[in-house]
Write a structure and sequence with these properties.
By secondary structure, the protein is α/β, with parallel strands linked by helices. The chain has six helices and six strands. A six-stranded parallel β-sheet has the order 1-2-3-4-5-6. The structure holds iron/sulfur cluster. Iron/sulfur cluster binds next to loops.
Length: 200
């Protein structure tokens, strides 16, 4: 049960495996490769949810990057048929898949990584900035309820970066935005390069 993954709703979270990005602060690096040792049969998930009807309000699909799942639309439809609202946590890594799924969910927690030209520093992937911001445009043009969030790891961000990012998001029309400071617990055990001096 979670009180923080879907605003104002009691929710549970389904963590989907697979993500092609390599964010330095990722808390789920064990889900990067689509070969997780911990798998749950869909029937078990549905029986889990059936036992929680009336107790939970919502189910959040998270990851990894949930929009990479071929059966996501079907899974969302099944969850909604059980009477739950559906949330999606995503960085919009596949804009077309994201656009196709938007009409099915009730709320999106959208991970905006950084200014477009700075995303690669965080994700390690060269076109991630254009992809991330293309999906933001899709989200905003859709009209669905959302929250945009940016995770800040201070060796990757300067205050000025953040100020420019906030101004750009405001210019895009973002109405709901949260900054979350990265926690070291659960990050990848890789030795992270300090791309910028740590803020004191
Ligand atoms: S996009 Fe999300 S799941 Fe993928 S590496 Fe970044 S933080 Fe982790």
């Amino acid at each position: 049960m979670s009180t923080v993954d879907y605003p104002d709703h009691l929710a549970c979270v389904l963590f989907c495996q697979g993500c092609p990005w390599r964010c330095q602060y990722c808390h789920n690096p064990h889900l990067w490769a689509p070969d997780s040792k911990v798998l749950h049969a869909w029937e078990n998930i549905e029986s889990f949810l059936l036992r929680r009807q009336g107790l939970l309000d919502a189910v959040v699909f998270s990851g990894g990057e949930a929009t990479l799942q071929n059966s996501l639309a079907e899974a969302i439809t099944r969850v909604k048929s059980l009477g739950f609202r559906v949330g999606l946590h995503t960085a919009g890594i596949r804009p077309r898949s994201f656009a196709n799924i938007l009409g099915l969910v009730d709320w999106v927690g959208f991970d905006i990584k950084a200014l477009p030209e700075s995303c690669e520093i965080i994700t390690g992937v060269s076109n991630s900035g254009s992809v991330n911001w293309r999906s933001l445009e899709i989200l905003l043009s859709h009209g669905i309820a959302y929250e945009c969030r940016t995770t800040v790891l201070w060796n990757l961000f300067e205050i000025e970066d953040l100020r420019q990012l906030v101004h750009k998001l405001h210019a895009y029309g973002v109405q709901r935005y949260a900054i979350q400071i990265a926690r070291p617990q659960g990050m990848s055990p890789r030795k992270l390069p300090l791309l910028r001096p740590m803020a004191s």
